[in-house]
């Protein structure tokens, strides 16, 4: 029987080779079925980029479903009747693997990607529709990658149009409210004319982008990239002006860019870096003071070499990198969340942008989401309130002493907190928990919950935004067959629903431009 043993051993030794021979060739499948739309290096084309960084919020089971069944209202076909189950699974796994060699995206690539509609220069400088342009809502629908424009007075949809895949970071508006700039996760910036209902220009700023910011004077657009490690600065028509390497002063370390926001009163962009403990400020004021890097006894005596302050990087060293941050009302301080310590504790760093150093540390538990914070007056004090992604709590912070004054319990961890200066209430979701179907309404005068709303039991509700006058609160039913749920902000009674395809966010033009105390950057 020894020959049988030898045969069995031989077969076992050959098994991996047989398995390899029968395993689907994912690279070849991608080249045959996907590359024409998504690019040979998976950088995107007619379809979105298929890189791990771009797909981080898409679950692998959902990716497999899209490959098998296609995507409605898009050019993505279904492959379930063309490929076997093992081939579908191999493709789904392939798009989550890093591209080798690592893809590059430089200034020449950015400039080559830009498109511009020359006819836009002649479009009328007035809305084609009859509604208040300052009470217009821009609603991002993630279910089928569209954008709806909603009249905030009549609470009706004015127009709907397709968007780039996976818009992220919130749209930003030009100062007069005519143009909106969208940023997508795979790096595309779209300039859209809200008055004429058409795309003006597009450009690809990077391969994986966090968000965009528009300067308060409307002259500049800046993009924050994860891949490559850069900031990209454009003019209002998306012509590239320059890129900034997100790196230490000596260039030894580079970083992903967590976020960029416009600090309008300062005439500057403020930038958080994810992997380097620095906060950057880039002024677009032509009269900006020179930048002096390093330690200087007295810069007035010319003790260091100065660099131009206009569009130059002014660095503030930190103890730890910031993932995101929030401005106080005067835009003098940036309040950001540092990573959790070894014992799990979390704190916020309060950075004074004028003296360029941390001036306070605020102890916070769990994982606070300061990018969704709001400010309001409470008992004669100005306070900041923030949600928490791990704990069911809203933390209220005294902004004079930089100390927590109240922790308001909620049904579960939430992402968005919103209010308006003309309402006594703040609304918070619990979408990061089993209580995802619950909205909690908090009285800003007492810091106590006054109402729990469950407009669609068992279905996710999140992201409140108010009409310009604060009369109505619009809540997202965050489902593919979802809706905007309109509430009377005073009585807290439901008024109506507008069907939507997973309305992930809605943004009121007037509130954003007026920097309403209850909305986001």
TrEMBL record:
GO terms for molecular function: electron transfer activity; heme binding; metal ion binding. InterPro entries: Cyt_c-like_dom, Cyt_c-like_dom_sf, Cyt_cd1_C_sf, Haem_d1_sf, Host-pathogen_enzymatic-act. Pfam families: Cytochrom_D1 (PF02239), Cytochrome_CBB3 (PF13442). Keywords: Heme, Iron, Metal-binding, Signal. The keyword Repeat does not apply. SUPFAM superfamilies: C-terminal (heme d1) domain of cytochrome cd1-nitrite reductase (SSF51004), Cytochrome c (SSF46626). Residues 21-99 form the Cytochrome c domain. Residues 1-19 form the signal peptide. CDD domains: 8prop_heme-binding_NirN. The keyword Transmembrane does not apply. This is C-type cytochrome. It comes from Ramlibacter cellulosilyticus.
